[in-house]
Amino acid sequence: MKKINTITIAREYGAGGAEIAQALATHLGWQLLDRELIDEVARRAHVPSSKLSEMDEHPSSFVERLLKVFWLSDAGNWPGAAPRLVDEDYLAELSGVVIREAANLGQCVIVGRGAQCALRQRQDVFHVFVYASRGERLKRIEKRHPTREDCEIALDDFDRARAAYLLRHYNCDWADRQLYGLMINSDVGIDRAANTILMAAGLRR
Fold first, then answer.
1. Model's pTM, two decimal places?
2. Please, which contacts does 162-169 make with residues 24 or more away whose CB atoms are closer than 8 Å?
């Protein structure tokens, strides 16, 4: 297996996957690409220029490099004109292109958006699934939703949506163990989970 140059993080809602990804990126000095950033890069690829002003006007140097590669590479020469309606299917396909370009640049931690499926054939990518007990997940999201009932509903709705996304766009089962090099329970704590991932990926002794 090649030296790991990219880590993907799939996660249950409220399991702390984003925090673990941030800890990994900080320790390694790598760039963090979370779901929102990948969505933003995908949207920038084919929207009217008037819409760009609504987005972040100061991307990181990594994103600038990524966009440059995206536009100048063969992958960036998107076939045909952009659709009038940028729908979920179009963004999902375009996001897959962006994810693959990010992996080509390397030294990044990618959260969500089916990256474990888009990059499953690459030997230099380590795929992780982060889960947690329901009680711990509820604690983590209690400030994001007004009531306990809303938290309970959110846990199920978010996970159902993530599973449906992978099934629709990659024909993959979100919980398929074969997609991941490691599945880890974040109840052990963010730092301990991050350290375990680093060791499993061969990036820390």
1. 0.80
2. 162/10, 162/13, 162/112, 165/92, 165/113, 165/114, 166/114, 166/117, 168/92, 169/89, 169/92, 169/93, 169/96, 169/114, 169/117
Name the band, by pLDDT with cuts 50, 70 and 90, for residue 180: very high
Residue 201 near residue 181 (C-beta atoms within 8 A):
yes
DSSP sequence for 88-136: HHHHHHHHHHHHHHHHHH-SEEEESTTHHHHTTT-TTEEEEEEE--HHH
Summarised one tens digit per residue, pLDDT across range 26-76 is 999 998 988 655 555 555 555 443 333 333 444 456 666 665 655 555 444
Closest CA to 127 of 4, 6, 3, 8: 8
Is pLDDT of 162 > 70? yes
Give the domain 6-200 fold. Rossmann fold (3.40.50)
